[in-house]
Amino acid sequence: MEMGFDAFAAACCAIPVLVSVLAVRVAYVLCRSGLPPSRSRVPGLRCLIVLGSGGHTAEMMNIVTELQKERFTPRYYVAALTDNMSLPKAQVYEKSLIHMEGDRETIIENAEFMQIYRSREVGQSYITSIATTLCAILHAMWLIIRIRPQVIFCNGPGTCIPLCASAFLLKVLGLGWSSIFYIESIARVKKLSLSGLLLYKLRMADQFFVQWPQLQQKYPRAQYAGRLM
Prior knowledge:
Layout: H1 2-32, E1 47-50, H2 55-64, E2 75-80, H3 86-101, H4 104-109, E3 111-116, H5 126-147, E4 151-154, H6 160-173, E5 179-183, H7 194-201, E6 207-210, H8 213-218, E7 223-224
Parallel strand pairs: 1-2, 1-4, 2-3, 4-5, 5-6, 6-7
Helix pairs in contact: 1-6, 5-6
């Protein structure tokens, strides 16, 4: 009986310590938010690019074409499992680099394409979405642990939330560091998308960009990037 009480007392004492340590880690991560990733001996930065249906992929690929390819490499493209159009566009772009740079094997190794479970499909009931959301979070965590991206680019699709949350959690736990760059869609003129609002309010994004000046005035921590399309 006494051993059980001692274990309970020890657990009660440990919980406040763990909470305090976690709070310090969260504060540290938020303070470092926005700083450039630490220099690596490897010349390239592992880059995770989140694609989405509709205009999200077109906007993101427009951004990707402006990246310094030798700096942001290897590139990992991620899209929802039910999205059959986004990854082929990324594959076409990466194949164009093969013809431009001529080294087929090197360019292919610099890009990888993968899919992730969607948290909730359009029209899906909220009750059944609990299980699919849990599955998406676990899958996202597995991808982040496997890839260990140093940079994440996303611009609004719902699939970016579990990925960014997983990357943020690894930062808090000290198991990795990913600089998250969120670029709000140009279609968002007066208010942020749900994905953007969550990342903004929870301060998960290291850099948060909007494409309309009135959005920057409404959300002062965002940066006005001009129109990228």
